[in-house]
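Subject: complex prediction, re-run

Hi both,

The earlier run crashed halfway through, so I resubmitted it with identical inputs.
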Amino acid sequence: MTRVATVALNTFREAVRDRVLYNLVFFALVMMAAAILVGQISIGIEQIVIVSLGLSAISIIGLLISVFIGVGLVSKEIDKRTLYALLAKPLRRWEFILGKFAGLALTLAVNTAAMAAGLFLALFYVKHSIGRADTAVLVAVYFILLKLALVVALAMLFSCFTTPLLAILFTAGLYIAGLFVHEMRGLQAGMIDPVLGRLLRWISYVLPNFENFDVMGAAAHGRLIPGMLIAQNTIYATLYCAIVLVVAMAIFSQRNLK
Amino acid sequence: MAEPAIDIENLTKDYPYGFLQLKKRRSLESLTMQVQEGEVFGFLGPNGAGKSTTIKLLMRLIFPTAGSARILGKPISDIAMHRDIGYLPEQPYFYDYLTAAELLDYFARFHDFDAAERRERVERMLKRVGLESAGRLQLRKYSKGMLQRVGLAQAILHDPAVVVLDEPMSGLDPVGRREVRDIILELKKHGKTVLFSTHILSDAEMLCDRVGVIVGGKLQGVGAPSELVGLKAQGMEILFELPESAASATGGGELLAQATRTGDRYRLQVEESGLYAAMERLHAAGAKILSVTQVKPSLEEYFMHLVEADRAQAAAVEVRAK
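This time it finished cleanly. Structure:
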């Protein structure tokens, strides 16, 4: 596990020294400032506007980092051949994949936490208090983080066997499809051919269900999020990530480097 | 007999190509060879001959189509084997956001050294490759030669028993090449096994106990450089000086016509049996003889002979196919 942690910490260090990451954090801070401004002109619905805007910004920025850096985690190392000297060390290929995943997950956690802190500051600025109901915002941020971890795992899986551009397209496509899982299940109720309906139902169960991670509405209105949903989403994201990463490790373990 | 440090048996590698990747190009064909413990072994061949493919197969960066290999008695699939080997990739490139010291520290962590030992090894290695003053500089500011030195440092950082270097002299200036040669000789002195690929034949001749020549993916010959090229002298070379005035006045014009001139100096190749007669004639003509050396076939000539034979064979196959 030490070797996995070593790779993870180096991945985190790379992200920290990467100026793109700083720019994105800066962008998030600008978004927060904009939220405050919008909150001031939206009389009575400041919390809804600020929380919605803040969570959307956290989600979008996180997704950009997850997809673009996630795809580059493996492909960049192969393209630049930095991996050659590393894999000659006593490091298994699956340890490399797991370390890279953990490193970006850690980066996203730190980045998301910083943005969430900005969101809470903005919220405090307009409300002058932070109450128990605001814990829903925290849960929403946690769900975004789970979603991002899943996106990173998918980006890594695709980058293990295809080009970076295709990996970005596949990951983005799968993410968008995963936002419509419930709609896919609803379609089979007499609206389309039964065979196609069954097929779509099966596909909807295999696709990552990103809809379940969206609690932005509840958080914006200060509604409490049930503990069962938190447990369910945590287990779902953990298992899904584990399965995707195992497949990624299996593919990468057999891959011929250039 | 002791087990070889590197034991390669029938190693074959095909690369698929074409839109559906159904066609195959053979890059390495049934390579069988051994590198003995404590030996410096040079792996020679022109570009695309299969040198890097062989090394990548040994490092498990690519996987063989057929055959197997063992390093220090362990199959190359065994991760424990990597504790005792050091590897310098061809044209190495490292994380450019790290300094050389950070990179070496990062790699040292995979060998479970504690913090104090890592620090000591990193400092020692930077000094050994002449980068002690540039150790705190990010690698993106390094020249190609400096990256090569970092690559060498990371390869020997953990004091491995077997060191595999892919084109270690590539991109280095004469000083750098000399330093790499010194490091290889020092590794040999400490009983390490060194396998390195190169197409700089003079380096191989100077450093290697044995060399293997690979052309077109096939091993064409293995042995000590002197064994491969043959020990029989091809003749004698006389190096002499002859001032311009004496050269025009001399009657030994026939000998001078055969000689190669550089300034006032001339090089003349003669048969061993005709050496003394030639020397007497040169002396009579007023030449000052500087040295007399034996002319032996070089590794380069042997190498070129193999390359040309392979090209001729490939051309013949092409003609037959048409």
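Chain B touches chain A through 31 residues (CB under 8 Å).

- K.
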